[in-house]
Amino acid sequence: MESDRRVGDLVRELVCHLQNNPSSPHPNPNSDHVNYAIRILSSRMTPFILPDEAAIANSIKSRLAKQAKLSDALSFADIYSRFASKTGPGSVTNKRSLLYLLKVISEDRNSNPNLQSHRTFSPSVISDGCYSSPRLKNGGVLTISRAPISLRNTAFRDFATLVKGENDVSEEDLVTDVLSVCQGIEGRYVKFDEYVISDSMKLSKATKIMIQKLCELGLLFRKVNRYICDNMVQDVGIVAKAFCIGLQDEVLEYHKLLAVLQSESVNPKGNLSLRRLAVWFVEPTVKMRQMGALVDSCKDLKGGAMAGAIHLQAQHGDPLFHDFMKRLLLKVCCPLFEIVRGWVMEGDLQDLYSEFFVLEQSVKPECLWREGYQISYLMLPSFISKSLANRILRTGKSINFLKVCCEDHSWADLATEATSISPTRGGLGYGETNALESLVTEAEYRIDKHLMHTIFSRYKFKDHCLAIKRFILLGQGDFVQYLMEIVGPVLSEPAKTISLLHLSGLLEKAIRSSSAQYDDRDILDRLKVKMMPHGIKDRGWDVFSLDYDTRVPLNTVFTESVMGSYLRIFSFLWKIRRVEHAVLGVWKAMKPNLTSSHFFTKLPKAVRLKIVLTSRKCQVLWDEMNNFITSLQAYIMFEVLEVTWSKFCNEMEAAKDLDYLIAAHDKYLVTIVEKSLLGENSETLYKSLLMLFDVILRFTSVADRLCEFKTRNTESKTKEAKTSKSKGSETDPWLNEGRKAVTQRASEFLGVMGQDLDSVSKEYSSVLKGFISQLPMQQHVDLKFLMFRIDFTEFYSLAT
């Protein structure tokens, strides 16, 4: 009590000092002034940032020094040192606040000269016991949130009175106008023309700024509401309509808030002011700004692109904002997830507005898998990864492939089983990516497994691949041998004179003459003869080809381009077989030993010597060519076809879906093409090989002429002998011509043969060396191994 009485005396003395002349002998302060000062001191009004005690003292000393009051500064320093050092009973506990009060009073008196001559409080500034003088300027607007309730209410009433004196329109009317504007309705004083207030009305600048800030909410509401109204009556897609429904739900909550504020504004006991509205509008304004931003970003988007754009806006750290965006995305993504579910479970694509990221195209059944369905990455939401999107695409595509191409409907039971096992048996929603992946995984596993079983068991995919290897890639040795022997004479004729029906009959005969006759009849019926487009000078060898008929669904793997690659490989292998067959034919013709014949012994010695030399030269050249053809044939059959087939079989066993199987087969085919010198990087090497084939065929032609000469003379002698015996004459046409004529005739023919053999041998060696020199430069390692097969003794390498 004594301390409170002492404080009151000190405050009375301070007010008296401020109110009256210090020289007055009888100070008599006004009681209202004293009560006001005590109320201010007893309240907890403080500046937002209050410096510490030492900083305030240094500020006072610096101020006195700047005013050239050095003696006062020294006196203050001495007094402050004693004041700060005094502790214990009777000392001031809150020294910092006291120093701050003295500093503020001093600065205020110096900044307001009127207070020097008029120290009395003006009656006009005392209203209901509350001092509201605007002269105090240090500290700005003081914080009174911790003051007693009665003091706060008094301060609010004083502030309202002050505002009413500055404005022509009451604050209640302004609040009503602002609430109307926020509902999209023009107010009495605030119009929609950028919320301009009439210049004829007197409003303070602060009030105008406040109204403009509050009316921003109305502007955003009009934008959002216009977007909702425009899109709800148009065919913009189900995702856009779901987005509008989500916005409508948020706008409904906004209308509820405005209804509450409207009722508060008309309540006589209410105290709704513009500042209170600013507090109420903080959260709705933030939410409406975000909805306005969403409307701007989604204006030209639809479907998955719209959902992805909204998802990107939801990446925010504010939990309230995150909850708002999640509620909105749950409604927006619901149609998308329903489409995903229908596609994965039933293969149905109910996408009337092209909003889903899977695009459907009308194609033939054989193109259904490769071209029927594609991913539109523009419509792929950002919360669905590309890998998951590809799995979703393949699952629905597999169901449609089973329905359309395989005519299989047992997949429905598998889809039902996948749905029952999936942890999410109800509808999917935004944020449930794990549940979506689980559903896709279950459906994908069962559908792909059933599809692979159908392809391999019902349609015998592996058996057809093996049939293509045996017949198109000439892996069935006995069949190829029989076919080559019976069609060889026919294919030597001009292509335009060959009948396709005749060749088909010869093909059937070759099948019946080999072990291929025991194969499945469905496979044999697919094997057909095909004649390539040909010119006038083309022979049957140039246009003959075998074709394999692949039907739905096998033609999903064996497409036209794939069969075209098989045709290229067959043409190359058929050339090799033809050359091999021709070389073996030369060997069969050279096999009889003419030097031991009776006719040979009766020829002149010089002729006999030339025949032996020419035959030996032909035999040596045949050995070289036969070695090359045998090495090339072994490389193609073992290093290329068999090794590649073994790897492809392993990949077929490991295939879990049709995409993997198609990729494995494409890899198998590309490997054969690359290793068989048919790739783009081996064009020069392939041309050199074709030149070698031409040279070898020229050699077989020369060798056939030589063998024909020897055989003709032997047969001629036998025939003439029989004729002479029947006629009783033993004359020989060769001997009748005379030894000299026979020697000249044989020498001329054998000389020509020798020159032709030398020319062929020289050209063969040159082309072969060029071919071998290109092998080390090939990128594929197996082509380098071909060089080792052909030139394992390094004969050609050392010769170059």
UniProtKB/TrEMBL annotation:
Family, similarity comment: Belongs to the TUBGCP family.
Superkingdom: Eukaryota
GO cellular component, one term: gamma-tubulin complex
Location(s) in or outside the cell: Cytoplasm, Cytoskeleton, Microtubule organizing center
Transmembrane as UniProt keyword: no
Name of this chain's protein: Gamma-tubulin complex component
Residues in Gamma tubulin complex component C-terminal domain copies: 463-796
Pfam families referenced in this protein's UniProt entry, alphabetically: GCP_C_terminal, GCP_N_terminal
InterPro entries: GCP (IPR007259), GCP_C (IPR040457), GCP_C_sf (IPR042241), GCP_N (IPR041470)
Gene Ontology biological process terms in this record: cytoplasmic microtubule organization; meiotic cell cycle; microtubule nucleation; mitotic cell cycle; spindle assembly
Entry keyword annotation includes Cytoplasm: yes
Natural source organism: Deinandra increscens subsp. villosa
GO molecular-function term, one example from the UniProt record: microtubule minus-end binding
Annotated keywords: Cytoplasm, Cytoskeleton, Microtubule
Gamma tubulin complex component protein N-terminal domain mapped to chain residues: 175-456
Broad class of where this protein is predominantly found: cytoplasm
Record's function text: Component of the gamma-tubulin ring complex (gTuRC) which mediates microtubule nucleation.
